[in-house]
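DM from R.C. (forwarded with permission)

"hey, sorry to bug you on a friday — could you get me a structure for this? deadline for the figure draft is monday and I only need the backbone to look sensible"
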Amino acid sequence: MKKIIIVTGGIGSGKSVVCAEFAKLGARVIEADKVGHDCLRVGGAAYSEVVAAFGAGILSADGAINRGKLAEIAFSSGENLARLNAATHKHILKEIVDRVDKIGECDIIVVEIPLFWAVDFRYDAAVAVVVDDEARISRVMKRSGLSIEMINSIIASQPTNEEYRGFADYCIENNGDISSLREKARQIYSEIKGGNI
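My reply, with the result:
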């Protein structure tokens, strides 16, 4: 029977590196963020609902949702973020479940999802990746064009490190270099694959 593993953590925590390492070891990875992008495409499952919630001002000239513009509006207030989540989460979760069901022969399926409280499907274990906020902000600023204000808004909207630790069966403290993070990921993968979860 396939084991389903949740990998969670805030923006800039290193969860994508952990998922990439799991993939190298044979896991099939589903990224909730990529599923969300698919749901927002023209004709996607959440497209009409999001446009209805936020108006035509979020659209580019070709009718596609401008995700940067949408993010600015959504993260400007708790109310707006709640509206976005209400319009998207159910579609994202349904698509994740559909994709899990379609995956054929494999031992482990990994679902990378930042907001663990949105998870309402069966899973066997959860891995959280945590790092202090200062390091997260620095990493995200280096890899993206996001402002520090936007990054802080995203961090404020996500669970705290303590909440991630409390949710997880396994926790990776990402306080070293990338080689150390990959090694921790390999150790946990081995435990999960060989364990009785």
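R.C.: lifesaver. The radius of gyration is 17 Å.
me: no worries. The mean pLDDT is 93.
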